[in-house]
Amino acid sequence: MCAAITSNSLTGSAAANQGGADIELDQNDATTVKLPGYTGGASDTSAVQTFLQANNTPSVGTAPSAIASASGSGGGFTGGTSCPTP
Questions:
Q1: Which residues contact 17 (CB under 8 A, 6 or more apart)?
Q2: Contact 14/65 with Cβ under 8 angstroms?
Q3: In sequence order, what DSSP letters do the residues of 14-79 get, joined into one string?
Q4: pTM
Q5: Contact yes or no for 63/56 (Cβ under 8 A)
């Protein structure tokens, strides 16, 4: 899966009954989640959270909160170039 999650104004959109984060990204089972521009490790969820916050911070205001998890036998989180057009 490839996800270009950038330039969004998400601060304050968290649903308290769903973990309380503005952005939640989970890598499960045998999947690989490609995040264009990401340079962290495949299972470094702290780096994924920081990446998501940095790429979705409005010019004025606070960074959104983020949660990431990695589990399973897949490739975890990877970076690279842009996502292909569907």
A1: none
A2: yes
A3: --GGGTS-SEEEEE-TT-EEE-TT--S-TT-HHHHHHHHHHTT--SSSPPPPEEEEE-SSS-EEE-
A4: 0.85
A5: yes
Q: Using an 8 Å Cβ cutoff, are 72 and 41 in contact?
A: no
Tens-place pLDDT, residues 31-66: 999 999 999 999 999 999 999 999 987 766 778 888
The span from the CA of 66 to the CA of 21, in Å, is 5
Here the tokens at position 28 are 């499960």
- Averaged pLDDT score across all residues of the chain: 87
Specify the DSSP element, H or E, that contains 82.
Answer: none
Residue ranges per structural domain of the chain:
16-78
